[in-house]
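User: My instructor asked us to take a sequence, write out its structure as tokens, and then describe one feature of it. I'm not sure where to start. Here is the sequence I was given:
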Amino acid sequence: MGGSRQAEALGDVEPMEFDIRPVSEPWDIGMAPAPAGVTARRYMVVRNATPSSESGGTPSAPQRAELKRLAREDTDRVGHILSETMRPSRKGRRYKHAKEGISVFDGPFTETKELIAGYIIVSAESLDNAGRWAEQYLHVVEAEEVEVRELEPGT
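Assistant: Let's start with the prediction itself. The structure tokens for your sequence are:
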């Protein structure tokens, strides 16, 4: 979805920043063979938070409807797959390896692009349940820290 079209739909007067990066597929890192017929690379477009979105401002019903319309249009045009919106970092938690085990910090966080290594979307009943998953993930991938953020419903 084009950044200027999203900004227009959201009525955002603040400059919007977007990161565009390739999606690392399991076959890119040797975890599975590539499915037959895969010829295109998938890309992720991340719309970075603005002061209004990080303060908890959410799109109105008409704005959400317009974003959905733009996504449908992009699905036909470029193969748009999914859109999600994260809630502000003040509603999230950060799980970090520490000498005493895993430390948990409630938001808000200062986001830095250097910390972003990927996104994993999990379905969990609560932030606590997602946190239990994050703690296991820290050990499995030997990550230093994981940030857990809720997604806005219906985005």
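For the description part of your assignment, you could build on this observation: DSSP finds four helices and five strands in the chain. Try explaining in your own words what that tells you about the chain.
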